[in-house]
Design a protein that fits this description.
Layout (H helix, E strand, L loop, with lengths): L3 E5 L3 H12 L3 E5 L11 E4 L2 E4 L5 E2 L1 H9 L11 E3 L4 E4 L5 E4 L3 H12 L1 H26 L6 H4 L2 H9 L6 H8 L3 H6 L19 H9 L2 E4 L6 H12 L3 E3 L4 E7 L2 E7 L4 E3 L2 E4 L3 H7 L8 H4 L8 E9 L9 E4 L4 H9 L10 E4 L14 E9 L8 H21 L6 E7 L1 H6 L32 E3 L10 H16 L2
Parallel strand pairs: 1-2, 1-14, 2-10, 7-16, 14-20
Antiparallel strand pairs: 3-4, 5-9, 6-9, 7-8, 11-12, 12-13, 15-18, 15-19, 16-17, 17-18
Helix pairs in contact: 1-10, 1-16, 2-16, 3-4, 4-9
The chain binds flavin-adenine dinucleotide (FAD).
The site of flavin-adenine dinucleotide (FAD) has 34 residues, from α1, β15 and α16.
Length: 491
């Protein structure tokens, strides 16, 4: 039998790595501390309601298709994805609304309705520009392993990106293409997904807007977002991987001669020639890995973590007519919002909120006539030193007040269940700095400068997940699983 590979963690990255490795004939065991696979893409049930606790939409389904395809499976046999229409809805403090809708023509019509025909023409040109940027970045920089700075020095690819504005600030890049302030915000707020302000993030991250505004957003019709890891776990098992749930890896063993295995809580030892670690990366370096595992990117400098979030999951006793699946309510104080989150470690002065209403696509998540609602307010992470015992209740009051002002009515009165997750709760889940979004994507934590996915000190020790390359988010961590598998298979 082929030497065993252990994957630590059955989040999306771990499941992706397991599929690629098992499909290539490796003997794979995935060890997961929780009772269900999924990690951040998990699920919680309470009072007759079911809640997705992490991502609320799926972008780039082609990456999921490629992941299950590696094992010879068809996506449709495992997951029924509903395209969302609108992809999402944006509301602005002046009362304006912009629906991000599928298709260039429909979207241009929506831009024209809001900002006139000239802006619609500019929008179409910008949309094409975003497509060129994605193409310039995907193959050379995102979808492949990088072995050193020389690997990044691809003069033609870099020159192309520079010409497209990839090394300007995101805000400046977008502002040269779009003139309406609402359109600019609609294409820059996504910087927060990279943990940065659009005034600091590089233009290369304009492609995040392409991934959802152009590529669309999707939602599993049955079972919500948690259906995604369940499907991936099914594919991994069918390909021959075995999953050990409710089992914690206590430490990874090995040294300069190579990784030798893992020790589980309780003392059992699993021998392994390769180990793929997908748990929180800075915490792994601190507590899980052998001393010979070193990466100066993690250990010898100050790490910069993304902001965190304050989440409220509600089990509503009514439904919300006309509510989009995903609505982003943008606040007034644009620059101050990002400064509070990314520089001053505070809370937003006039909060932008993300509201998800999954019930129409996932009716089984709530009793008949009822619905679930998920409200996310970006906040500082726990490194900011806020006193959450004091800030949390204040934020909660403000959040309900803001939602009432936005037309949601009295949601406290209309909820049978309320679950709150604040940054200390993320930290209690083992996430460094109390953020589920890991390291931010500033230049010094991108590409070859991001913690690497193969240990230089311990051969066979490999990493996947949001803390390593290429980065945070569902498509990225699925890719990270494939890149980790390639590291193992090419050894
Ligand atoms: C609220 C929220 C909203 C989000 N929204 C979006 C979105 O809209 N779009 C998007 O693309 N992304 C979104 N994301 C980000 C995305 O969900 C994550 O980037 C991704 O799921 C991370 O996957 P991962 O496998 O890297 O890590 P994780 O999901 O954290 O997986 C790591 C796994 O390792 C396990 N583990 C840890 N330690 C051990 C141990 N010692 N032994 C065994 N197992 C262990 C954990 O239990 C966990 O299951 C969101 C995340 C959150 C939290």
């Amino acid at each position: 039998m082929a030497a065993q590979t252990v994957v630590v963690g059955a989040g999306l990255a771990g499941l992706s790595a397991a599929i690629h490795l098992a499909a290539a004939g490796r003997d794979v065991v995935v060890v997961e501390a929780e009772a269900v696979p999924g990690g951040r893409c998990g699920t919680v049930a309470s009072g007759g309601y079911r809640f997705d606790i992490g991502p609320s939409v799926l972008t780039m389904p082609e990456v999921v298709r490629a992941t299950v395809g590696a094992a010879g499976e068809e996506l449709e046999d495992w997951l029924e994805l509903a395209p969302l229409d609108p992809i999402y809805r944006l509301t602005f403090h002046d009362g304006a609304r912009l629906d991000i809708v599928p298709g260039a023509e429909r979207m241009a019509a929506e831009v024209e309705r809001l900002a006139g025909p000239e802006e619609a023409a500019r929008y179409l040109a910008f949309r094409a520009h975003l497509g060129r940027m994605l193409e310039a970045e995907w193959g050379p920089f995102i979808d492949r392993n990088i072995d050193g700075p020389a690997d990044l020095a691809r003069p033609l690819a870099l020159a192309r990106l520079a010409r497209l504005g990839g090394f300007r600030r995101l805000h400046n890049l977008v502002a040269t293409h779009l003139s309406d302030w609402r359109l600019r915000r609609a294409h820059t707020f996504q910087a927060l997904y990279t943990g940065l302000s659009p005034f600091d993030a590089l233009g290369i991250y304009a492609v995040v807007a392409h991934m959802d505004t152009v590529g669309g957003a999707f939602f599993p019709r049955r079972g919500g977002m948690h259906a995604l890891p369940l499907a991936l776990a099914g594919v991994a098992e069918k390909a021959g991987a075995s999953l050990r749930l409710s089992t914690r890896v206590e430490r990874v063993e090995g040294g300069p001669d190579g990784v030798t295995g893992v020790v589980l809580a309780g003392g059992e030892r699993l021998a392994a020639r390769d180990v793929v670690v997908t748990s929180d990366l800075p915490a792994a370096y601190a507590h899980l890995l052998p001393p010979a595992a070193r990466d100066w990117r993690v250990q010898r400098r100050r790490l910069h973590f993304s902001p965190s979030c304050y989440l409220v999951h509600l089990g509503l006793t009514r439904q919300l007519d006309g509510q989009a699946h995903h609505t982003v309510h943008l606040g007034r104080d644009w620059k101050a919002t990002f400064e509070a989150l990314t520089r001053h470690g505070g809370i937003q002065p006039d909060p932008s909120l993300l509201v998800t209403y999954p019930s129409p696509e996932d009716p089984d998540a709530a009793p008949p006539g009822h619905a679930t609602l998920f409200v996310l307010e970006p906040t500082a992470n726990t490194r900011a030193g806020l006193d959450w015992a004091e800030v949390g209740p204040r934020l909660r009051e403000r959040l309900y007040g803001r939602l009432a002002g936005l037309g949601y009515g009295d949601l406290r009165r209309d909820s049978a269940v309320e679950l709150v997750v604040d940054p200390p709760a993320w930290e209690a889940q083992g996430l460094t700095a109390g953020t589920p979004f890991s390291l931010d994507h500033r230049f010094g934590q991108t590409g070859w400068l991001r913690p690497q996915n193969a240990s230089a000190g311990v051969p066979g020790l490999v990493f996947a997940g949001m803390g390593t390359v290429p980065g945070v988010g569902v498509p990225m961590v699925l890719i990270s699983g494939r890149l980790a598998a390639e590291r193992v298979l090419n050894r």
